[in-house]
Amino acid sequence: MGGQLPLVDKPVLDRLAAEVGEESASFLLNSLMQEIRDSGSELVQHASEGDLNQLEIQAHALKSAARSFGAMRLGEACQALEFAAKGDASAELARLLDQFRAISEETLLAFSTH
Questions:
Q1: What does the radius of gyration of the chain's CA atoms come to, in whole angstroms?
Q2: Does residue 8 contact residue 110 with C-beta atoms inside 8 Å?
Q3: From 2, 26, 75, 113, which residue has the greatest number of CB atoms within 10 Å?
Q4: Which CATH architecture has domain 10-112?
Q5: What is the pLDDT of residues 52-63, one digit of tens each?
Q6: Is 91 exposed, middle or buried (0-12, 13-18, 19+ CB in 10 A)?
Q7: Cα 59 from Cα 79, distance rounded (Å)
Q8: Cβ atoms within 10 Å of 84's Cβ, excluding its own
Q9: What is the dihedral of CA 46, 52, 57, 59, to 10 degrees?
């Protein structure tokens, strides 16, 4: 999933910093990093409770936020979760959540070194 996509699309981050300033961009990036951490826990909780509607909503929201900061692979992982929840593909969720966790950890590491 998303192997050819960049983990973090640096031009997107650079554009954000140019639009809002370095300090604001840093604040927003830190907020996104917290959202990634929080959403990961919430996605797992929704999946374990069988609440596919909330899983779909949470995955969709994080997908949009991730892509707006250039976290392209994370956006793809969220989209896969969103579509699996929408299509009631419960059997796929464990595998997709594992992929999400791995990609979110890589993304957080990449963002923390930016």
A1: 14
A2: yes
A3: 75
A4: Up-down Bundle (1.20)
A5: 999 999 999 999
A6: exposed
A7: 7
A8: 22
A9: 70
- Token code pair at residue 63: 């997908």
Residue boundaries of the structural domains of the chain: 10-112
8-60 per-position pLDDT tens digit: 999 999 999 999 999 999 999 999 999 999 998 999 999 999 999 999 999 99
CA-based torsion, 29, 33, 36, 39: positive or negative:
negative
Q: Which of 92, 97, 105, 100 is nearest to 76 (CA)?
A: 100
Q: 46 φ, ψ to 5°?
A: -60, -40
pTM for this one?
0.89
Q: What is the longest distance spanned by two Cα atoms in the chain?
A: 44
Q: Residue 102 has which token pair?
A: 């791995």
Length of the chain in residues, anyone?
114
Give the separation between CA 100 and CA 114, rounded to whole angstroms: 21
